Amino acid sequence: MRRSVIGGAKRTTTTCLFLLNHAHHRSLLPPLHHRLDSSSSSSSSSATALLLLLRRLSSSSAASSPSPPNMPNPVSVQSINPKVLKCEYAVRGEIVILAQRLQEELKAKPGSLPFDEILYCNIGNPQSLGQLPITFFREVLALCDHPAILDKAEAQGLFRFTISNALSDSCLSYASADSIKRARQILDQIPGRATGAYSHSQGIKGLRDTITAGIEARDGFPANPNDLFLTDGASPAVHMMMQLLIGSEKDGLLCPIPQYPLYSASIALHGGSLVPYYLDEETGWGLEVSELKKQLKEARSKGITVKALVVINPGNPTGQVLAEENQRAIVEFCKQEGLVLLADEVYQENVYVPEKKFHSFKKVARSMGYGDNDLCLVSFQSVSKGYHGECGKRGGYMEVTGFSPEVREQIYKLASVNLCSNISGQILASLVMSPPKAFILSLSLSLFVNDFLLKVGDESYESYSAEKDGILKSLARRAKTLEDAFKSLEGITCNKAEGAMYLFPCIKLPEKAIKAAEAAKTAPDLFYCRRLLNATGVVVVPGSGFGQVPGTWHFRCTILPQEDKIPAIVSRLTAFHKSFMDEYRN
Amino acid sequence: MAPKGLDYEHLNENVKKVQYAVRGELYLRASELQKEGKKIIFTNVGNPHALGQKPLTFPRQVVALCQAPFLLDDPNVGLMFPADAIARAKHYLSLTSGGLGAYSDSRGIPGVRKEVADFLLRRDGYPSDPELIFLTDGASKGVMQILNTIIRGPNDGILVPVPQYPLYSAAISLFGGTLVPYYLEETANWGLDVNDLRNAVSQAQFKGITVRAMVIINPGNPTGQCLSEANLSEILRFCYQEGLVLLGDEVYQQNIYQDERPFISSKKVLMDMGPPYSKEVQLVSFHTVSKGYWGECGQRGGYFEMTNIPPKSVDEIYKVASIALSPNVPAQIFMGLMVNPLKPGDVSYEQFIRESKGILESLRKRARIMTDGFNSCRNVVCNFTEGAMYSFPQIRLPPKAIEAAKSAGKVPDVFYCLKLLEATGISTVPGSGFGQKEGVFHLRTTILPAEEDMPAIMESFKKFNDGFMEQYEDTRGYSRM
To answer: Residues in domain Aminotransferase class I/classII large (chain B) (predicted)?
Structure first.
């Protein structure tokens, strides 16, 4: 409420400014924006500022000095795009800035804080916490980045330096035969083998073909490379869709609450309306179609045109994996209401419980018999998540189906303004959707070649699948340990992380803590998270950054710290929580 | 049937308004012809590696090692990689937290931003603050970010040169602002007249538009001119008086093909001017790894540096950057390598210099061949490409050609470029995609085709052009408009 009042005041002042400027070209006053600076806290004081201004203006109209600037600087907080001011992104918000400051402090004065390192559990950034990349993917990328070694290796039989340290020296020279093969295949798909050239704005065609095959293998339904747009991570793809869908604040998108704040931020930035639907914490963050219907109706009654439904599956920050039945109901709902289904499926590889399986919305829709004419569906995928966690590469894609050719053309145009996404990221996206496979052929060969060569065909598959399984199993263990730890704490309940990379525990904060937070002018969950950080060095994100049922408090904690660090985190968390409760218990 | 969310009629109008000619009709037709097996010479995008320019060896070695850091532990790594590449890879990995696979700070890796700041100090002679340098996925992303921050609505105007690189027109329509054109004067070697700027601003004001920023592209795209120091200081003074942010697109700063007017940055000129200008004028300048002798377009690496932008606004720009998490890390390392290149005495130094000099000298020759080639054609006049990567000849189309274009439903220069494409396989961009004065027609080509192919390309162009002119020109001569 307060925010909109301030925003309104600002708008008035800038309009007036414009009028003044219009009347008096080249004679406004430099201190102008300082004055506005101090006046924007209430509309009455900004009116005073305006009066002052008008007075200044009439007195200064005669004296026109040679070259004073006639306008306040255009890039001041008072004069920038109000949509920019409005958007918020808590994953990298206040807590993280505090964490960075503490980290500097630790570096400058080791031992000055009650902990010796900052543990970033705020963001799904696995490799920053020590997760190793998948060797095969990196071999292929290195070879594509510097193809000169590829030729050299072949000429001299010298490509002997790769693969994990676990293998004995004698294996090394042949170890990555299939990564060489894959790198060659990929380079052959790139016009001129030029990994340093802009590609087609949708991404390199050959790589899109590979991804298409991967999607078909995953879903058992046909896919089309022309439906794919490769992007610098999934976020730019989401932005592109927002740009397309949102024309004004009358355009709404149904978003889950809690949600990944990319959606709220991007809707705010594009000036649309977020139409919330609540996930039900009681039923493991269940998504009820009745709730969707209710919220849709309510939004429509307010004159909002709801254009799309965002579903994050597996959920972020909530970690639930949707049941197929549930997905069918969602698809049916979108079809009936004419909503675009924006399916954030970036955690599709991250499922930790045997009773749940990931199903893409495309597969679900197709299995219901719905094709391109029935449903507009966008599926987002990223190289940043899964077992690979290659966040820094900024690779991803969206698969858009059910769009008319002229709409497709508009997306293509948007993509082309950015020229193309980065090529390493594109290559990696193709690898992720088409990882090494077990070679059946090599088994039959094994009858008459020695044991050493048997490894050749399988080499990357074995090490690849060992690396992959190792990471996924470890993530599942970490999720369980942290969940159990949270559940054991006074006043904390926590749903299981069935998938994704997060736990989103609910804290029942004592009245006294809420009062203390209010006195400190912070949201209670932010208050808790800040105290946690200051006491333990553990960085989590307050639930208010994701949205939550009013009056409930949560935080999001990733399951990504390396396994050997988990016990320490658990004991620090436990000790902190206990002392926090002791301090504030009613 | 219920209306659907993505019905064309209901799309964001600003998206529909966007035009982006570099990948428009001509490019699509060229791609079609290529599929049909015709040999196409793509001169529509400044994309050097696509036309056979080899990447510089050293940076690729460093980035390959960073991609596969386990190679660094192998005793045989020295057989395949020079010692300085190994050392640099270790250096950059030590600057990251988690190698190439981790999101960096949303503004880019602090250590790389420090290297950029050191480069700017060496280049301009003035200190630069790494906190005010943001790394981006190519310069385009940075431009979009800044324009998105500035533009509030249709009453906000941005001064943009005409002809211009269509990124600016596209981004301004996308964010719902108003493009306020100022014309570059072709007869004055695409010079920029400050009086013309003042006119543009007052005309815009008359229409109720507040001009808030000014874009300069130096060296020019598509026009190839290098701005003089005197001209730059006039521009900065103008921005000071009008309270405009100056957006300095300086991505072609390495691409200079004459010695009279070396590149000089807006920041240096601004700082040289001293107060009040150096303390007041808001400046954002852009750079990239896609151009220069690097030409690493596919990496999507760039940065912008902010000068005199208030800290609160910087925070807002940071916030928006953080929504995109981080720019891609391999390209950040390319950027580090670009601003902090090898030094004499390094093992790979000789090779690096040989490669980079070779590319620049060849581009200089190609710029010359192209300008001379165009000027030898009937009804074609062309300014010399002083910098950047493009030639932008004016094609004086005879009235009959203009009529023929109209009856074919095409803009005259599109008509000409399509015919050129069909006849020769040369894929150019019509001048109308960049903006030009009423009744005057141009096309843009890059100067990037291989040097050895250049004479043949120009010959084939001349053959087409002169035939075209023959076909459409009255014996009485063409109209000079």
So the answer is: 84-450
